[in-house]
Design brief:
heterodimer; A: 116 residues; B: 110 residues; mainly beta; 5-stranded antiparallel beta sheet; 0% helix
Chain lengths: 116, 110
């Protein structure tokens, strides 16, 4: 069964450094998302992406965050200058249809980001 | 505002039936999803409801009442591997973002 893949599985970075989290969505999917989950807390929406542009972003997704689809297969999340509170599990998700669909978002295994 | 409530923890015995409730108050509604999440792993899709009523899928069923802002996930013939967190998520009406509850951690005992 096709799946969303994320790399790396664990990233340790010094505060203030830039980090890029990578995702390969399911190949025929058109809608892409990033969510994060701080340890012990709920999954939170960050951003959705469709047709090479951001569809919606949350309050968490400030100027330090950006997303890109550099080619036909990858979808990346960049944090420009990391803060301690950015430490979390970051999940990429994709779906083949959007708002009015019964198709679920499929999640990758996540990247655990630890900021020191 | 957006608010999704689920019990924090539940326990059950192998072979039993358990019902996990979810109530929601959101500014818009376009479907409710249930996901299973094992510790340290990705959420995996279990079920979807957009109309009132019961959706059955093997050992798992999910129910929705839009007028009451209420859903439940029913797990039958519990197995040890069903020990996990169960996440209730509402899809926003105007976008396709998912708004998650805090999840219910289910422990199944022999």
């Amino acid at each position: 069964e096709p799946e969303v893949t994320q790399t790396p599985s664990h990233q340790v970075t010094q505060m203030g450094q830039e980090v890029i989290l990578r995702c390969v969505p399911i190949s025929n999917h058109l809608y892409f998302y990033w969510y994060r989950q701080i340890l012990g807390q709920k999954v939170e929406f960050l951003v959705s992406f469709y047709n090479n542009e951001i569809s919606e972003k949350s309050e968490i997704f400030d100027d330090q965050f950006s997303v890109e689809r550099p080619d036909g297969s990858n979808f990346t999340l960049k944090i420009r200058s990391t803060k301690l509170e950015d430490s979390a599990m970051y999940f990429c998700a994709s779906s083949d249809e959007g708002t009015y669909s019964n198709q679920p978002q499929h999640f990758g295994d996540g990247t655990r980001l630890s900021i020191l | 505002g957006q608010n999704i409530d689920q019990p924090t923890e539940m326990t059950a015995t192998e072979g039993a039936i358990v019902q996990i409730n979810c109530t929601y108050q959101t500014s818009g509604f376009n479907g409710l999803f249930w996901y299973q999440q094992h510790a340290g792993e990705a959420p995996t899709f279990l079920s979807y409801n957009v109309l009132d009523g019961l959706e059955e899928k093997g050992r798992f069923s999910s129910f929705l009442s839009r007028s009451k802002g209420y859903s439940y996930l029913l797990l039958k013939e519990l197995q040890m591997k069903d020990s996990a967190s169960y996440l209730c998520a509402v899809r926003d009406r105007d976008t396709d973002k998912l708004i998650f509850g805090t999840g219910t951690r289910l422990q199944v005992f022999p």
